[in-house]
Amino acid sequence: MSSLAGKVLFITGAARGIGAGAARAAVQRGARVVLTDVDEAPLTALAAELGAEHTLAIACDVCDLGSMEAAAAAAVERFGGIDLVLANAGIASYGSVLAVDPAVFRRVLDVNVLGVFHTVRATLPAVLQRRGYMLIVSSEAAFAPAPGLVAYNASKAGVEHLANALRLEVAFRGVDIGSAHMSWIDTPLVQDAKADLGAFNKMLAGLPGPLGKTIPLQTCVDAFIDGLENRRRRVYVPRWVALLAWFKPLLTSRLGDRETLKQAEALLTEMDAEVARLGRSTSARNRV
Q1: What is the mean pLDDT of residues 136-148?
Q2: pTM for the whole structure
Q3: 286 found inside a domain
Q4: Any domain includes 1
């Protein structure tokens, strides 16, 4: 029997992609899930698919602490507590620092960093009561920066360290904290970037070996479920992403910059031109 059986899992960014996949897998293992997202229609559809007995769907914005606190309170009222949290909500922006819409840049940081803080702040009292576990979704971008994705890179590095610091604050109270670091997963975020930007596709194609390969969504879901079941300190998807963590000092050295700089001018020029033609510097689905 899975260790998730009978547990309550609170998920942000649950309407689609990794969040939705994790919700399905958790329910199959006997968990009850609290689904939160800003997109109400797909959230409601997912809750109907999974069944009212196992789910609570709440449309809310991770950027709004009051909204997240209300969601956490509703979860406790419905299911009696919260055992596990998957802080998964995240977005990205396109374009160089000079080309990206400043409002979009701010929104990325609001969702990806403040959204994690709000999620943790709202759910932690309940998780402490059950000596539970939180998995905070970072990225391989925390280790290997890319031009044109500055806001995403900065936000994912930030939440990695948020998880590291939080771990020190709550370990003595019986709560475990993990951080997840993924390569390019076949999520709506990556699909949108591929559809919007030829430069993004060229960047992936120019990466050596498996670094530019898009990983199936289910591979990521399976790794996240394993992390939740076993309260992992780190979740790497695929496992070779762990090497990027170890080699982070090299990746951000002059030597590490050398290969990226060979492509940076051409790719960034193309990306900024594409952003200008699109009239937006993020996916069309993102709200700014």
Answers
A1: 95
A2: 0.96
A3: no
A4: no
Q: Map tokens 């780190």 to a residue.
A: 234
- Amino acid at residue number 46: L
Structural domains of the chain, count: 1
pLDDT tens, residue by residue, 56-94: 999 999 999 999 999 999 999 999 999 999 999 999 999
The catalytically annotated residue of 94, 133, 152, 236 is 152
Q: Is 152 in the active site?
A: yes
What's the whole-number average pLDDT of the chain?
95
Within a domain: 61: yes
Domain that holds residue 203: 8-278
Check if the beta carbon of residue 275 is closer than 8 Å to that of residue 100: yes
pLDDT class for 1, splitting at 50, 70, 90? confident
The contacts of residue 215 (CB under 8 Å, 6+ apart) are 182, 183, 184, 185, 186, 237, 238
Residue type, 213: K
Mean pLDDT of the 10-39 span: 97
Which of 177, 174, 155, 158 shows the shortest CA–CA distance to 166?
A: 177
Structure confidence by residue, pLDDT tens digits, 233-287:
999 999 999 999 999 998 899 998 988 888 899 999 999 999 999 999 999 988 6
- Domain with 220 in it: what CATH number? 3.40.50.720
In a domain, 285, yes or no: no
